[in-house]
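To assess whether the prediction recovers the assembly geometry, we first specified each molecular entity separately, as shown.
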Amino acid sequence: MSNFVEELRWRGMLHDAMPGTEEQLAKEMTSAYVGIDPTADSLHIGHLVSIMMLRHFQNAGHRPLALIGGATGMIGDPSGKSKERNLLDEESLRHNQESIKAQLALFLDFDSEAPNAAKLVNNYDWMKDFSFLDFIRDIGKHITVNYMMAKDSVKKRLSGEGEGMSFTEFTYQLVQGFDFLHLYREYDCKLQMGGSDQWGNITTGTELIRRKESGEAFALTCPLITKADGGKFGKTEEGNVWLSAKYTSPYKFYQFWKTTSDADAERYIKIFTLLEKEEIDSLISRHQEAAHQRELQTKLAEEVTRMVHGQEALENAIKASEILFGKSTEEDLRSLDAETLMDVFQGVPQFELSNDKLEGGLEIISFLAEETSIFPSKGEARKMVQGNGVSINKSKVDLNKQINKADLIAGKLILAQKGKRNYFLINVV
RNA sequence: GGGGAGAUACUCAAGCGGCCAACGAGGACAGACUGUAAAUCUGUUGGUAUACACCUUCGCAGGUUCGAAUCCUGCUCUCCCCA
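The predicted structure of the complete assembly is given in tokenized form:
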């Protein structure tokens, strides 16, 4: 068994741990869990930190449990400023659970015969038949409201001008605490991990275990991932960056990591890749000498994309990126055949355009906003073209531009570009 | 049950009868500079339109007025305080 806590520490993934946690892990193979909200049928990269924690945990010889928060997800954690959630029906809950499990299997070993094989559980399974009366009698009795009110997540919502807090949300920490107790009983789970905002919820669990079972359980949290510029991690204009190719194409996924800022890249590569310390250290020192090489971002993007989407998807993403961001010109574009282009650009948004629209030329504005929805309105398209922000086949265009057959690449494709990074492939049929 | 405050564009937040498509800030997008970075500077940020202009928008529904985000009435929702 290797030292899990030490591993997290050098990776910058350790925010806080209860005293005795390290000793417990050194003593014996231990089970730990993190909770995941099944609000969608895919994980997004905000989940990735927790998952990497579990991965390291399993690597260290311990046993990871992933808890799907079917029950708690219905309530909504008052930590942060999240509002009340909508309830999920059981059918979509199960669907989400299955999809998420498949994704987790990319990181964790669920199947092996090893004693530390990962396990997926869903708190809906033990909460659904737990009656309110039973719950308040068996669980509620052991925790005082005073204790619950002292939690930051609760205090924040009770004070100030906020939206207030429903009783349902207030009970969240108790329900989560009971999860921990349940896992402690069923799986001898002695550790709960999560983001630092979960500390209060986790300690309610350890407290419950102490009072109900006279047991000792532990908490370990990682820092919340931030961006150097203060923005939210993992969000782009289009929303979350998902692990599922259905929602975020491998190309987009790769690009997300590749455009990480210098200030963030050093932290991220430690957290989101499994690279060893020496390799990361040398990458970082090389990056500091020659930041413009972007070696760090490239490596980060490669590692994470490979882990999530596999080698082949990674290679396509790289190929697409080279064509789009390399020094390639209209000439290079034209040298490619339609097959290659279609293949490489799988991840960029695509539109279809009928061939006869091009007869006699098509106004650029109409092309951008009517025939395709690259822009939502003609006004916006016009402004952007006037602002020198639109390229067709890598060449800037102005308002006089007419799209016609001469613009077709390989006889059937047009590559439109909004700004530097947003590409669209138009398939003329 | 009683009293008070409020609902404005992606978010926060001005405006309190015409000069309001609506100050400002943030965010987002784009341009310049760069390294597909950061910082900085510039532009854009309801729709149609080259433009004049027109249309739709300030919780919902009505009303007053030449004219309403702004005044009146009713409704819905939110928050706070007291019981």
